[in-house]
Amino acid sequence: MEKKIVEEKVETISETAFDSRKNKSRKKRMETQEEKPQSEWTERVVQIRRVTKVVKGGKKLSFRAIVIVGNQKGQVGVGCAKAAEVIIAIQKAVADGRKNLITVPIFKTTIPHPIVGRSGAGSVMLRPASQGTGIIAGGAVRSVLELAGIENILCKSLGSKSPLNATNAALEALKSLTPFKDIAKKRGKTIAEILN
């Protein structure tokens, strides 16, 4: 009789211990899900290419990734990296993009003035657009403008169609934009006077 009672007690203790373990693991999972803060940075992979390097013993294969990083609030960067595996190449490209961030002067959801950016054999023409136009751009340049936080713009990619050249040309164009504040300061006028 005593043995039965002892066995029942042991069973109930082991069940409660198992249940508590389950609950703890559930709590941990819930905590980890809640704790992870949403990063304001958005990453977009533009191209992944298999590239080869000719070495003494033959050819060495690796992957090249082009990634655009932006917070859609006027900051954007382009990263390019190579690695033996795709995932590592993407991670390295993201890190490279974060290093090369630029600030874009956004004026009423568009850019302040028309500009042409060049990189290698590629050139990109950017023009400000009125409200409701949207982003009229193709391929890699579109991704750069979206992640920069520009909502209305006209764009034409000229010359090289390479995504790397196009993204770099777009970045160069955005980098060399001058905000109205700076122009007004140089001329000794207010922004309202320049706009009118």
The helix-strand sequence is HEEEHEEEEHEHHH
Low-confidence stretches: none
Number of helical elements: 6
Mean pLDDT: 84
Helix content: 40-55%
Q: State the oligomer.
A: single chain
Shape: globular
* SS class: alpha+beta
**What's the total number of strands?**
8
Biggest sheet descriptor: 4 strands, antiparallel
Strands side by side in the biggest sheet = 1-2-3-4
Through-space gap between termini: 99 Å
Q: Which range does the strand content fall in?
A: 25-35%
Evaluate the radius of gyration.
27 Å
Question: Describe it for me?
Answer:
This protein has 6 helices and 8 strands. Helix 3 links the parallel strand 7 and strand 8 (153-159). The chain is globular. A 4-stranded antiparallel beta sheet has the order 1-2-3-4, sandwiched between helices. It has a 4-stranded mixed beta sheet with strand order 5-6-8-7. With 196 residues, it is α+β, with helices and mostly antiparallel strands. The protein has helices spanning 2-35, 86-99, 139-148, 163-175, 180-187, 191-195; strands at residues 42-55, 58-70, 75-83, 102-103, 115-119, 122-128, 135-136, 153-159. The longest helix has 34 residues, at 2-35. Helix 3 (139-148) packs parallel to helix 4 (163-175). The chain starts with a helix and ends with a helix. 43% of the residues lie in helices and 30% in strands.
